[in-house]
Amino acid sequence: MARSKKSDISKCIENNTTKVFFLDKNLIKENIEIFKIQLPRKTSLFIKSSEGIYELLQFNEKHRCFFIENTVCSNGKIYVATKFDPLYAFIQLLEVNCKNRAQPIDQLLENKTIIFSDFLKMSQMRLIADQKGSDNLKAFIFNEEKVLKWLKIKFARIQESLKQQKIIFSGSSSLNFVQSTLNNDQIENDDEIAATALGIISEYISLDLYEKLDAFYGISEKSKEPISQKRKSGVNEKEPDSKKIKTEDDDEITKENKKSQITSKSVSKNVAKLEKAAKGTKSISSFFAKK
């Protein structure tokens, strides 16, 4: 086998600077700029484009690399750009700064956070806050009731989106399962979907809002419920048939055991008769022995 040239080997070097992005086609056509913005809940990377604001999510798993043409990228991180609703940012800003008194929006935004106002209408702000003063002032005060109502709508949309993707979270469903089992697995999967949807939202809201949203849907309580309780209804539906099947199987086994016992008794009787008839007779080998 021919040896690789040094020029080829130099291409196959570990590259830590190369990064792998999954972007929308419209973003690829633009000269995008990435911002690192610190919000009260967390610090994230954002992309501003003509289409809106995208959050850049990072996925990093151990022992991963990429082969890109003739190079090896040892940086196994993946960056995925997802559309971001700027109201999530304003919920955090309003809850921290405008819970007791109204403030103009312009005073809340500093440095890079100004990009969120470029894609936000004042009518949207009224979904999570109460406006005070004139429209020109753009002053708002945090309204928890409105925020929870808006979060419930978001929760339902995320939950429906996860269902449409047909993601099986429990991993316990099988084509070989009976229908009742599949129905119970579907219930468990719905609970997992609800927990996942709430987990996604929890990344952008305070612990207080998370606990109130969780209490409304009772997701934590459902997760604490034993599996036996979740499967109870399905087991009861199939219980009469299962008992009948078990009884029939037991009868078959009992019949087979009785037959084997009768057969063994008849064999032992025949052996006893042969032994009795053979008493006093000589072995056939005695006729060929030396006399």
TrEMBL record:
Residues 23-85 form the Rnh202 triple barrel domain. Residues 227-247 have a biased composition (Basic and acidic residues). It is found in: Nucleus. GO terms for cellular component: nucleoplasm; ribonuclease H2 complex. It comes from the Eukaryota. GO terms for biological process: RNA catabolic process. Residues 103-213 form the Ribonuclease H2 subunit B wHTH domain. Keywords: Nucleus. InterPro entries: RNase_H2_suB (IPR040456), RNase_H2_suB_wHTH (IPR019024), Rnh202_N (IPR041195). Gene3D superfamilies: 1.10.20.120, 2.20.25.530. Residues 227-266 are annotated as: Disordered. Its main location: nucleus. PANTHER family: RIBONUCLEASE H2 SUBUNIT B. Belongs to the RNase H2 subunit B family. Non catalytic subunit of RNase H2, an endonuclease that specifically degrades the RNA of RNA:DNA hybrids. Participates in DNA replication, possibly by mediating the removal of lagging-strand Okazaki fragment RNA primers during DNA replication. Mediates the excision of single ribonucleotides from DNA:RNA duplexes. The RNase H2 complex is a heterotrimer composed of the catalytic subunit RNASEH2A and the non-catalytic subunits RNASEH2B and RNASEH2C. This is Ribonuclease H2 subunit B. It comes from Polypedilum vanderplanki.
